[in-house]
Amino acid sequence: MKAYHSGNHVFIEIVDDGAGINKQKVTKKAIQNGIINEQEASSLTDQQIFELIMESGFSTADQVSDLSGRGVGLDVVRNKIESLGGRISIDSTEGNGSVFSIQLPLTLSIISVLLVDLKKEKYAIPLSSIIETAIIHKSDILSAHHKKVMDFRGTVVPLVDLKEVFQVETNDAQEDEYCSVVIVRKGDKLAGLVVDSFIGQQEVVLKSLGNYLSNVFAISGATILGDGQVALIIDSNALIK
Amino acid sequence: MEQEKMNDRKVIVFQLADEEYAIPVQQVSNIERMEPITRVPQTDAFVKGVINMRGVVTPIIDLRTRFNLPEKEYNNSTRIIIVHVNDLEVGLIVDAANDVIDIPESMIEPAPEVIGTIDVDYIEGVAKFEKRLFILLNLQKVLSLDEIDELKKVEG
């Protein structure tokens, strides 16, 4: 067993000197179980064959007991690792043993965000969901069936006013001529989040709001800014239907 | 000095409006002065937001709002009592933190039941002790979200 870190990842290698993975047996079993068909089987690379053993419901065990041979174990392992943002790969030489390499992110909690102002409150939007930011003129905001939309490079993008969603107190009736919009993406859907102003990009430590506030709408967590203030992190996925 | 008896209950006493409430000292981790609170949108009215408690983001609830008392401006005596209940860590805003005392178990009586009042199950009992009346709280119930959900349904 070997463990080392490189860049932002930790690598764990587990090497055994057992029998290795019998490729023929794995492919035969996979065809039997309906995971792949024969045509696919002939075109698989070694790597892909080894990955078959982590498929759900796959087992080469001839004997099935209450617990073992159900084809669950490695499937769980892979799911867990992938849910942590990691990867697992297998290499094997028949007769010489196998190598399981696990790659995990060093930290789950540092993310890049764009800090924005909503009146006096600060919120953070993860960069991973942002496509771009724009400052648009009030007259560029159109109305489609009583919903505010804007024209973004030829596509119509619905606008979400974050001050309304988060019930930020606004006392001044006068509004600026321009508004700042953060265009975010969920899958192939876009939405423009209207904010007061952009503060800037920052790397922040993601913290949870605690068990007591586990289900707040459109908020995925919080972070502590340099001045000790707590800023909430927006879950933009929740804002796009 | 009076010997501490085994059947005493050590409690933290705090003030809310005109009454004194008590919570077990074991559940209290610290008592802080008011700090800037970051509002968390779309939560219950009594959830005031979160604070930075030495690097830990801690939710804060206002006990006055939770107990349907009129709100009051925070002042110099306002305190945040950080409590641990099961795996929850929550700060409670109270008017003032008064005392740490031992209440003999025998002094604690169940909450008086009067017809016409809503039965609140977060009161564990009352204790009359040294001419003061303390209301003992069951924090688990105070923080329980189930009960709040039910209240909402009734009101809703």
Automatic annotation (TrEMBL), chain B:
Q: Which domain of life is it from?
A: Bacteria
Q: Which organism is it from?
A: Paracerasibacillus soli
Q: Which residues form a coiled coil?
A: none
Q: Which CDD domains match?
A: CheW
Domain annotation CheW-like: ranges: 8-148
Traced from the root, the source organism's taxonomic lineage reads:
Bacteria, Bacillati, Bacillota, Bacilli, Bacillales
Q: What is this protein called?
A: Chemotaxis protein CheW
Q: Which SUPFAM superfamilies match?
A: CheW-like
Instruction: Read off the InterPro entries from this record.
Output: CheW, CheW-like_dom_sf, CheW-lke_dom
